[in-house]
Amino acid sequence: MSNTNEQAAAAADKKKKKKQNPLVNILFNIVVPVVILSKFSNDNYLGPKLGLVVALAFPLLYFIWDWRREHKANFISILGFVSVLLTGIIGVFEFPSELIAYKEASVPLIICLAVLISMKTPYPLVKKLLYNEDLMNMELINSRLSEKDNTKEVDRMLVRASYMVAASFLVSTVLNFGLAKYLIHSPSGTPEFAEEMARMTALSYPVIALPSTIVLVFALFYVYNRLSKLTGLEFEQLFNIDLDSKEKEKTGDDNKPE
Fold first, then answer.
1. Which residues contact 175 (CB under 8 A, 6 or more apart)?
2. Is 225 left (phi over 0), alpha (psi -120 to 50) or beta?
3. Same structural domain for residues 131 and 41?
4. Does this model's pTM top 0.70?
5. What pairs with residue 229 in β-bridges?
6. Which residues pair with 136 in a beta bridge?
7. Are residues 74 and 137 in the same domain?
């Protein structure tokens, strides 16, 4: 009985645990540091060195906060820190501005390679991100897959999805490189360089994020649509949604006097 109570308490704690907001994650680790580097790292505001330190503080502090909360490394924080550090070094030490194009392309390329390499390990990134017990009703899904003898088909599905996700970051790599080559021409460390960096940041969302996101969303749709067919479950049954409470609410509404 005590084990049952402990399991129930653990399940309750898991449900109560607040999920990390991906927008806050991206804001602290990428958007704010880039804005500080491009807009406030000139001599009229923070200066190049202090601007670099302040910009680096955001992903670093977010990483520490998230580590204490989740007890695991935040990949976006690490990537954001490295990206901001490289941009700052190019600006502070006035390295050739042409390096920005390679730096911008390197971040999504690293993610692309990480997705592909992880496929050869017991912990593929796509499975960790899209097919896990925090997001999905794994107990029910695995039971249905065993009944229908479709377990191996899921592995093949995740391999295809991994290639799709890797492709989305490969598209981002090419577009990042092209946009940086097109926009960045001024010597690093100059106000013109900072303005070009700010313009590139503003354009990166419609020019780069949109096409990459479309490919990523297609991969998500493929995984969940295919999984629904393999298990015979409805779309909402795949996820950790409290269907019992929804059913009770529906029943309660039906029993209300007209």
1. 207, 208, 211, 212
2. alpha
3. no
4. no
5. none
6. 239
7. no
